[in-house]
Amino acid sequence: MVEAVYDLRAEDLLRHGIRAVLVDLDNTLIAWNNPDGTPEVRAWLDEMTIADISVVVVSNNNHSRVERAVARFGVDFVSRAMKPFTRGIDIVMERYGFDKDEVIMVGDQLMTDIRASHRAGIKSVLVKPLIKSDAWNTKINRWRERRVWAKLEEKYGKIVYHKGI
User: Fold this and answer.
1) Rounded CA gap, 116 and 105, in Å?
2) Which UniProt keywords apply (predicted)?
3) Whole-model pTM?
4) Domains of the chain: which residue ranges?
């Protein structure tokens, strides 16, 4: 668990054998209500490119929404990923021929992003949502997620986000 996707440094990923980052779009890479992104996202994507780490957006949003959001960043994407199922991850793995041990999924939702990565057998990194508000459909998942968090903290203690892996 890290604070933000931007806290994942290329040298740390490479040291862990990671050659590809699958990343959720809304509230992970960009704020759901700000499709233009931030200078931090551009800098992070540039760092990944320089290190030859592939970045692919895996989003449950529709094609036109994801295409419009990532067009300015020049990254590939899979829309309608159907997380928490593995459809989107499976498409990326087949498209690029990645090995499961060299890929991570980064997302802000335990119930979709992290669950899908575990079902697909790849590593995952949970990040804090970029902003506190969510689209209406995500609010349902957040309600369910709070219940799971409570059970996890009851079992393991306070869960802490870090500044890197």
Assistant:
1) 9
2) Hydrolase
3) 0.86
4) 5-156
